[in-house]
Amino acid sequence: MSKPCIICVAITGSVPTKANNPAVPITISEQIESTHEAFGAGAAIAHCHVRDDDGKPTPDPERYGRLKEGIEAHCPGMIVQLSTGGRSGSGLDRGGMLPLRPDMASLAVGSNNFPTRVYENSPDLVDWLASEMIKYDVMPEIEAFDLGHIVQAAKMAADGRLKSPLYVQFVMGVKNAMPADERIMDFYIETLNRFAPDAHWCAAGVGPAQITVNEWAISKGGHTRTGLEDNMRLNRDTLAPSNAALVKRAVDLCDKYERPVATWQQARDILALRPVPVV
Prior knowledge:
- The protein is α/β, with parallel strands linked by helices.
- It has a single domain (7-270), classed as Aldolase class I (TIM Barrel).
- 35% of the residues lie in helices and 18% in strands.
- It has eight helices and 14 strands.
- The strands form four sheets. The chain has an eight-stranded parallel β-barrel, surrounded by eight helices. A two-stranded antiparallel sheet has the order 3-4.
- Helix 1 packs parallel to helix 2 and helix 1 (28-41) packs parallel to helix 7.
- The longest helix is centred in the N-terminal third of the chain and has 14 residues, at 28-41.
- It is globular.
């Protein structure tokens, strides 16, 4: 299979702490350094969250701005994807970083259950976030936690609320949401191809499912996500020493299935992103 595989690295997230794994990058400088290592290992997209001085998740645009600037300086060409997720903020605060015009931003188009709470994404908020992404020329990565999210994203693209082609990520292994099940992934791929045949897709596995979902996605011709946000271990007994180590596992799977790892240039071309500004 000759199709390049885009590897996204989710460097920090909103939940992991250094108590869980000392390698989790919390400060802006730690995040930039960890992203630089992952970029060198083969990641073309950096999925980013930021933390406050106490290490708690925040939607602070100023912190996002510093992180974006640092990644662009130290990882030239890498695709910067900022999170609009609900663990970091609420309401319109969730899109406060979109005027920074990152290359991409995550977008959940519907609600679902998480392990201990409802991940609420009201239709009005989803429409506002989508309109802000169009306004600032930010490509959404649709985070699909359920089948209805795929259908809704296709509907939003059809009526102009999202630009086409879509980039849809299947998030698998979250407790109370979509399980990590290969037959379900196959059905999701079939459903996406039916409702949005020009869409690109990616898959992420949470916890122990990470490496399994990476392999399914790579072997089926999709793109994939890894990183310490989703999983902090190499195996049951070994903590991952870095985001780069998790990226390396995905690169090894690309080699196994004879998939070239997409360079940042190839990734930008596949996703039809705007050119990197000439400095």
